[in-house]
Please model this.
Amino acid sequence: MKIGLYPGCSLTGSSREYYESIIAVTKALQIDIVEIPDWNCCGATAAHNLNKELSLSLPARNLALAEREGLADIVVPCAACYSRLSVTQHELHENPVLKNRISEVIEMEYHGTSNVMNIIQFMQKYATKAIDEKKIKPLNMKVACYYGCLMVRPPKILNFDRPEDPQTMEEIMKSLGATPIDWNYKTECCGAAMSIARTDIVGKLSGNIVEDATERGAEAIVVACPMCHSNLDMRRPEIEKAMGKKLSIPVIYLSQAIGLSVGLSEKTLGINRHFVKVDLPYNKAQQPVEQNNVTK
Model:
């Protein structure tokens, strides 16, 4: 069965390494994934503040395209995109009149039949089973699993894990031989789209996250959202300024962690593209295998 992939704008630009790691991991685990053809921006954090009809039409078109391709499951790696597609699906399900109106706007039939999954749900459903059948390279390190605010909220719509203390990513990391820590900031906001307009706010909010993970002994922060990664990784100078100290803990994507455990190289997974140097203490006795060549 083919699984639909909605990459969103970030994965084709600022978070290219996230896209590379997902493609590399799914190929290595022989998971049949296909990008939704002719997808468009979901509206992210701006559309729903400006125009209600537009904010529903943009995600609905992507969902309709997936339906037309017969894609029952859709994985949405970006937490903001996941939120917009899920909220749209919920609103149109609750309002048939509005659903018909949006179908007219996008000039496509929309039924709301596709199952929208975030990257954590996708990896739990498809990757963990494939990993169980492989000999993995244990990630012998302590990790702080960071979900951010959009992956679990609003809980009545997303219905994913526990909104205050989710555990799915911890379960995946345990299966990879890592040790998840208990900490205070796993679902706190990193500053989200304020990364450009108010780097001082992002520095403080993200600083609290990075500082707590560090103080509790984590050797890496594992994320599942390109915006969260950008704020915790790229905005490290602003974080260190806000916190008044040097914080060198690296930030990696969940897909990169899985890739390392099944023997993919750091270059294949795009880890070399990060701003904060990633020098993980995982078992390096066996050299990672170069697979799935990507364009430099």
Residues 123 and 172 are 8 Å apart (CA to CA). The domain at 3-118 is CATH 1.20.1050.140 (Glutathione S-transferase Yfyf (Class Pi); Chain A, domain 2). The chain is about 45% helix and 10% strand. The chain has two domains: 3-118, 136-273.
